[in-house]
Amino acid sequence: MNSKLRRIGILTGGGDCPGLNAVIRSIAKPAMTEYGASVIGILDGFEGFVEGRMRELTPKDIAGIINVGGTILGTSNKGNPFMFPVETPKGIDILDYSQHAIQNYQDWNLDALIAIGGDGTMHIVDKFTELGLNMVGVPKTIDNDLASTDVTFGYYSAVSVATDAIDRLQTTASSHHRVMVVEVMGRYAGWIALGAGIAGSADIILIPEIPFRWDKVYEHVLLRSKSGNRFSIVCVAEGAKADSGDQVVKEMDKKRTDPVRLGGIGELVGKKIEEETGLETRTVVLGHILRGGSPTPYDRILATKYGWMALKLAAEGKFGYMVSLRGDEVSSVPVKEAILNLRTVPLDSQMIQSARAVGASFGD
Ligand code: F6P
After folding, report:
1. Domain locations in the chain as residue ranges
2. Which of 100, 135, 220, 236 could form a disulfide bond with 206, CB atoms 3.0-4.6 angstroms apart?
3. What is d(CA 323, CA 331) in angstroms, rounded to the nearest whole number?
4. 7-153+293-338, which class in CATH?
5. What is the CA radius of gyration of the chain?
6. Nearest ligand 1 atom, CA 262
């Protein structure tokens, strides 16, 4: 194929998710076979980019990985090159190490670099594009919170795991006549809780977009209990918060691209429900289980289309773009547009309306 692509790099940045390997495969395979390009994998995300860690990928590396979770390249949600954490005797200094990464890009003779990641990664792609690197972005995250694309791969795999967990919790909740609170990831967006809450038929779904009222939550579980439904399932997004409170933060870590690590709202909701209603309550935090394991067929297909399109953009010299899904078609948008906002759940979303119609409470 007639293209200037001779040597391309691939990097996975931020938290892993099912489908990353499927994207790597669908970039690297045609790059090698159709373009005759060599492909290097940058190890451990932007940390590896700054520190100069990479290896050349061979056809063997990318065989049999479409169904494998995680990323064969390794990843990290630390090490933003523009705010790189450096350990010093006095603590951690945050320094601009972007020139180290640019030097590596040049030393490796790259014609293009495809970065697969979430919103943090896309901000970095945008900055390197401004500095002249030939970058293309591929949107990934279980959180589904990237603007300018209908879906990110990883989302439906995470929803599938969370739904399976809720199905399992239903039977034990019903046997013990308990309230079961299940906390899911999602950062500042409620997509995972909403998707799994609908699919698993949760009785209460708490998401960051709809600050909840404690009294409404108690009322709903008590109402169910009085009407003979002797158990309830509450699906809580890690970013959910009461109208009277703040998001619950597990830790702050300035090495991370997003220093805030959320977590703990599930425990709080479970504790308060038990105290205020007298109903026996247990809490389960699904956490990283949502990110592990094999991608669903939908995510494998989407990831394959994304990788194919990313390579096509690189071959056409369309840099500073992110691949994007609109309806059924994969196309592209300027990365600048994709990072303008986080994509949270719209309040008039049909998902929210239909969940309410089948009896779910949002605690409002
Ligand atoms: O962005 C993906 C995500 O899994 C979020 O849902 C979650 O808040 C965060 O990453 C957890 O990050 P870590 O892997 O550092 O615990």
Report:
1. 7-153+293-338, 156-291+346-357
2. 236
3. 6
4. alpha beta
5. 22
6. 8
Answer for the pair 105, 11: CB distance below 8 angstroms, yes or no.
no
Q: 7-153+293-338 and 156-291+346-357: same fold? A: yes
Distance from residue 250's CA to the centre of ligand 1 (Å): 11
Q: Is 98 in the pocket of ligand 1 (CB under 6 A)?
A: no
- Residues of the chain with pLDDT below 70 are 1-2
Note the pLDDT of residue 257.
85
User: Is 262 touching ligand 1 by the criterion CB < 6 Å?
Assistant: yes
Q: Find the catalytic residue in 61, 143, 145, 299.
A: 143
CATH tag for 156-291+346-357 (out of 3.40.50.460, 3.90.79.10, 3.40.1360.10, 3.30.365.10):
3.40.50.460
143 is catalytic: yes
3-class SS letters over 235-303: EEECCCCECCCCCCEEEECCCECCCEEECCHHHHHHHHHHHHHCCCEEEEECHHHHHCCCCCHHHHHHH
- Of 47, 37, 36, nearest to 8 (Cα)? 37
Query: Distance from the CA of 15 to the center of ligand 1, in angstroms?
Result: 6
Q: Which ligand 1 atom is at minimum distance from the Cα of 256?
A: 15
Whether the CB of 261 sits within 6 Å of ligand 1: yes
251 bridge partner residues = 261
Cβ(183) – ligand 1 distance below 6 Å: no
